[in-house]
Design a protein that fits this description.
This protein is mainly alpha-helical. It has helices at about 10-20, 25-40, 45-55, 60-75. About 70% of the residues lie in helices and about 0% in strands. The relative contact order is 0.07.
Length: about 80
């Protein structure tokens, strides 16, 4: 196996677009990894989303997305 590391700079929007433009299999792998990070936060994941929801850098679309995630998690 050959390992190549590169450092690239992406804006948060570019990173989001990069994930969003992947096919459904690649997105599933990404969201599985994100879910693992959330789970490994040992109950702090929802608190983190609440904290992010109050951040001044979060625009209306971001607030909608975070609130949608939180509402879905609270229903389950």
């Amino acid at each position: 196996m050959v390992k190549i590391e590169k450092e690239i700079e992406l804006t948060p929007y570019e990173l989001a677009k990069e994930v969003w433009d992947k096919d459904d299999d690649e997105q599933a792998i990404f969201f599985s990894a994100l879910g693992r990070c959330f789970y490994e936060a040992q109950g702090k994941g929802i608190a983190q989303l609440d904290y992010i929801a109050m951040n001044v850098n979060l625009d209306d679309k971001g607030k909608w997305f975070i609130k949608t995630l939180l509402n879905e998690m609270m229903v389950k």
